[in-house]
Specification:
This protein is of the alpha+beta class and 555 residues long. 28% of the residues lie in helices and 22% in strands. Strands 1, 12, 13, 14, 17, 18, 19 and 20 form an eight-stranded mixed β-sheet that branches. Strand 9 and strand 10 form a beta hairpin. Helix 9 packs antiparallel against helix 12. The two termini are 25 Å apart. The N terminus and C terminus are likely disordered.
Amino acid sequence: MKRKLAALAALALAVSLLAGCSQSSLSWLKSKFQARDETVQAETAAASASSASASASASASASSAASGSAGTAIVTETAQAVTSFGLGYQADYGLHPYNCASLNNRVILSFLYEPLFAVDSAFQAVPVLAESWEVSADGLTTTVHLRSGVTFHDGSAFTAEDAAYSLNASRNSDYYGTRLSRVSSITAPDDATLVLTTDTAYECLPLLLDIPIIKNGTVNDANPVGTGPYTLDGTRLSRWSGWWQSAAPLVDFSEISLVSVDSASDIRDNFEYGKINLVVTDPNSAAYVGFHNDYELWTGDSTILQYIGYNLEDGVFTNYGLRAAVTFAIDRSAILADDLGGFGAPAVLPCSPQTSYYDAGLAADYGYNLTNFYAQLDSAGAKDEDGDGVLDLYFDSLGYSIPVSGKMIVCSTSPSNVAAAQDVVDALNAQGFQLTLEPLEYDAYHAALKAGNFDLYYGEVRLSANFDLSPFFRSGGSLSYGGLADDTLEGLCERALANNGNNYDLYKRICQRGCLTPVLIKNLAVYSTRSAVTTPADYLDWFLPAALSQADAEK
């Protein structure tokens, strides 16, 4: 979780700020934050289902701070020591680590379970239950060496058999989907060694191994046995004395209460009364609830990509020169600020700017630049031939020109996505395109994608932590809409998996051919009672304990 303090405001100050907002500005804020994650993959659907029901969005002051301005700590009263700690719990979603679809409940899971590896804010693999790993020369075998001295909550020793069982049990689960689809075998040659074989070379397979480890044979239990710093004890978490780390966990209380909640307003009320002390939410999800109490707000990096896709099989956007022009017409920073309240990062390339392989120079070459937009249109041969204000494009296969027109579809269950898509349409229409936006309900939207009933679409997907784009370009891939499958690009995806340095060639071709146009990477929001948590941990899916001490790291 990215350690960026976005806002710290006392109750009196927050109330005065809200009182000073006009009704129109509050309505605007609600319209921007009243959204639900649109999904285009099973993993995305599972994650966003809970975001919609467990969301607690930013107030006006918090939104302003998260939009990219420097965070300012405003202290108007002395912080009170937190003597108890609580987390919201949605009983309907349960606490199974592989099937739980509640973002709220998944915070609880991070106290109960641990993965082999976590992913830090720079999208690097960090060993947790693993100690080290190595990759074979051909990249097809990853050997993971496990940490010794780790026990499950029932006192049994953690071994490689447990790790192999857990990873196999997670395959095709509601939350982890098909992320291990390229892993052909998982074996445990001895208690301390795990060997994973893949059908394509991987430079860093551990980025996919932030999957909670459970005891062998317990996957069908409602609450499988884990190794985390707390155990589940009815409606509370109890600090476990047998935890393997010598350092204290991020939240160190003898007990953590689980407060039953059914709605976003329940979460808000319990947070403001101090019964819940930590909330993780998508601030652009369906339920808008403003927090008015004294809190700390942090932004959390994610792998959720918003992008523009095209129909490459029919219509004017079969011309790659025209598609390639679109990237230069998108003011990503404005979309982020206007439609998502600043919770995210502009992304010209299809990965997080936090990654080491996000090439800033390449991104600058294909970023917002109307001069380059006009030059690209000219290169593609797009011009207004009949003086009607709409660009036309000549097609040799037809023997005549057709207008640069078409329909963009977007999932209507996400108002912020609809607003972003409308901004894209308006920006292109201002430059001579003739596009219409058609918001569709979730099922109709996905049916249209599968049928190719669109010219463009505004999409959102939660990618894996290695930002593997294979699902877009592989034949039969889950994101390969509109004839996007391409052998050359699939090959470049595999080369990127084998060596992150090869992402440059992949991203450059995507930009040059306009295969898809990235817009932004979303951020989550983390609210905590002031002084309750020293700092949220730097992980995406896990509120893991504090960084391992040097003594632990050397074990």
